[in-house]
Amino acid sequence: MSKTEQQWIEAISGWVPPTDTSVLVGIGDDAAVFESRGLNVATTDTLVEGVHFDLSYCLPEEVGHKALAVNLSDIAAMAARPSQALISLVLPAARAESFVPGFYAGLSILARENGVNIIGGNLSRASVTAPMVVSVTLLGETERPVLRSGAKVGDVVFLIGDVGCAAAGLALLRSEGRKAIGGPFKDLVRAQLRPEAQTSAVPLIEAAAHALIDVSDGLASELYHLSEGSRMAFEIDTTHLGLGSDLLSAAQVLGQDPLHWALYGGEDYALLGTAPAEAVAQWRIPGLKTIGTVRQGQGVWIGSTTPRKRLARGGHDHFEAP
Amino acid sequence: MSKTEQQWIEAISGWVPPTDTSVLVGIGDDAAVFESRGLNVATTDTLVEGVHFDLSYCLPEEVGHKALAVNLSDIAAMAARPSQALISLVLPAARAESFVPGFYAGLSILARENGVNIIGGNLSRASVTAPMVVSVTLLGETERPVLRSGAKVGDVVFLIGDVGCAAAGLALLRSEGRKAIGGPFKDLVRAQLRPEAQTSAVPLIEAAAHALIDVSDGLASELYHLSEGSRMAFEIDTTHLGLGSDLLSAAQVLGQDPLHWALYGGEDYALLGTAPAEAVAQWRIPGLKTIGTVRQGQGVWIGSTTPRKRLARGGHDHFEAP
Fold it and tell me: Which of B151, B185, B299, B306 is deepest in the core (most CB within 10 A)?
């Protein structure tokens, strides 16, 4: 006998008790009630089965983890602290028992690690053949948001986290299925299945960063967002991206270009930003790379070539016509 | 040539400029930034094509209106004022041109009427056969939320708005299709296609209401939520529901029971609550009915019968097994 919506809501509210005292009313009333300090920040991101995840090689726990992680990355990219989340799930009723508990297990572990309360949500049935849809709205708080538009002439361009690994992991999963998880490139596969937002870097960079964005749609595309948002030229040295030896090896095995993965692969959830060079030099952050410089002008340029070349925009557009 | 996700985001942000100064950063950065006053309130609700709406008799404008209206109703049910909304749309790319502009037109008219800023969202493609999914997260503000749990002995049970009309409208649309809109029962059809949240009643009732809920899943089910949340018995007189003559006529035409629509139909978005009788007597609110009394005990009872009968719970569960 399947659970009703009401029974699921009761089960879920037992799995995700609030982690702090900011929540006055959690799951179970018409809406949640919570306190916030400073400015509020809000973002929403959606994962669609068959587009953003595939249960033939993803566990429900991994979908839950990823659904929150991609939103944590957006909140980090504002230099904000995450606080409250609302979760919407759409799925065929017959698939709920095998998906919902694992999904919430993966999501709630990450929520607790990041001080996020699950304060509400929605569970809707869909027809038997409909793909699952997972939407997370994540709220946060900040005293001083860092926008895409603040890059200044002379700033260095910094990158926190690896790029290209998630795309490599996806290629490996598509080629080998879930056994890729235990294979020689397991760190790449993990980057795809369990992406980690760079939330712990935020307190270290928030005071000095002038511009900030997360690398969800591919590094090249995000560089253009910063460049256009700030009306500045970005000069990038692609030899400073720090592509790891496992990325290079996997590219060779699969006959792919590792730099293409790094620039256009997407789903990396690294943080990309600009700040004064003297500030960045003080940061002690694992995975920090300085990859370029902000100049007067426009466009994104590969600075290490003569004559310099414009970086192709590319990008990972979830909505391109098929 | 279809628009990309980025082009849609740019188009949408032009359609829905912020309506007040609380929004510091709107659509276009990694997350929105806004100020709030008092306590924050948050809710999310999802409409699934084929489950909650059917484009064979709904316009995209009506889906947009309804997607926001159902959330406005939840915020009103906390005695809160709506403030900021985030919209997630999942649909096949080929259907975007015919749906997205109308959807946002319907949604943004209602948003402006209610002082709601559209501060963010998401647009995801799905496979050609996937149903559309619309999720709205709505935030609000209040100084004193009114919960489901506050009903007191001796309170009167009040209802603001009509019940049963949305269910009747759905039955008419399923029977006659969109031509029902111009027919003799057009007000019932309108209740289904363009539900109105009782937001304007909130300032009038917030000081006196002890308990509050919105009637989204059927009056009987919501009465049980209040009764169980407040640990009180509710005694209801169903002759006070104020079922209109058009509802009674439509029921006769379709061979249905109007009281069943009123108690179990759902999607009415009326406000149901309890407050002291002397306060309710002062209210001048269109559509206000006093339908019962709060007693010591438990359960929901039909008080006008001797011996009194327990009201069957029923309800409109979106997640019952098929």
Answer: B151
